[in-house]
Specification:
- The chain is 53% helix and 0% strand.
- The longest helix has 25 residues.
- The N and C termini lie far apart (46 Å).
- The model has no long low-confidence stretch (mean pLDDT 91).
Length: 66
């Protein structure tokens, strides 16, 4: 088991976290879920950004020289 760490948060943030928790869910599980959701959102944003680029913005790998 990994070491327990403490993260200081303000009272309003603590209350918000407590309201987000499901019955029986630990704060570790809640935070892990929030982190995973954030990672997915970032990936989706990156995919949207890359897919919206014009084809002319890309360079073929064979055109790149060291």
């Amino acid at each position: 088991m990994s070491a327990v760490k403490r993260i200081p948060v303000t009272e309003p943030v603590w209350k918000d976290l407590a309201e987000m928790r499901s019955a029986g869910q630990t704060y570790t599980d809640l935070l892990a879920e929030l982190i995973e959701d954030r990672k997915k959102r970032r990936l989706e944003e990156d995919v949207r950004m890359w897919s919206s680029r014009k084809k002319a913005d890309y360079v073929s790998l064979s055109e790149i020289k060291d």
